[in-house]
């Protein structure tokens, strides 16, 4: 996203498009923030009176992601674990085939 434009706050829809997050993930992060008793402005979310949409400071949100959301959660279902194992096996076999072709 080009940060040189004059737009300071963007709507949630635009934030999700720019950051490639799902609505569910963002909602989960917001609920975690509220459970901890933290202010959503730390995340870059502004809920202004008279506006029916949450407005976001994109640079502050990216900073939040860089500082607090670097860890990757492990798979939480057996199906997801199986899919990851299959994909890693596929990558491994493809790499072995490429080595045989090079040699």
Assembly status:
single chain
Beta-strand content estimate? 5-15%
Order of helices and strands: EHHEEHH
Sheet/helix structural class: mainly alpha
Q: What is the number of strand segments?
A: 3
Could you tell me how far the N terminus lies from the C terminus, measured between alpha carbons in angstroms? Answer: 43 Å
Based on CA atoms alone, the radius of gyration comes out at: 20 Å
In the sheet with the most strands, the strands line up as: 1-3-2
Categorize the overall geometry: elongated
The tally of domains stands at 2
Poorly predicted runs of 5 or more residues = none
Question: What share of residues is helical?
Answer: 55-70%
Mean pLDDT: 77
Largest sheet: 3 strands, antiparallel
Question: Please, how many helices?
Answer: 4
Can you give keywords for this protein?
single chain; 3-stranded antiparallel sheet; 4 helices; 3 strands
Characterize the structure shown.
This protein has 103 residues and is mainly alpha-helical. The chain folds into 2 domains: 1-71, no CATH class; 75-103. It has 4 helices and 3 strands; from the N terminus they run E-H-H-E-E-H-H. It has helices at 12-19, 23-35, 58-68, 78-102; strands at 9-11, 45-46, 55-57. Strands 1-3-2 form a 3-stranded antiparallel sheet. A hairpin with an 8-residue loop joins strand 2 and strand 3. It is elongated and about 65 Å long. It starts with 8 loop residues before the first strand and ends with a helix.
């Amino acid at each position: 996203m080009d940060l040189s434009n004059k737009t300071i706050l963007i709507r949630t829809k635009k934030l999700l498009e720019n950051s490639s997050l799902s609505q569910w993930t963002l909602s989960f992060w917001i609920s975690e923030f509220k459970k901890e008793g933290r202010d959503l402005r730390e995340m870059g979310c502004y809920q202004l009176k008279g506006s029916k949409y949450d407005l976001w400071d994109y640079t502050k949100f990216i900073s939040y992601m860089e500082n607090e959301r670097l860890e990757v959660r492990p798979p939480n279902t057996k199906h997801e674990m199986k899919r990851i194992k299959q994909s890693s096996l596929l990558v491994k076999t493809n790499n072995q085939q490429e080595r045989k072709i090079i040699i």
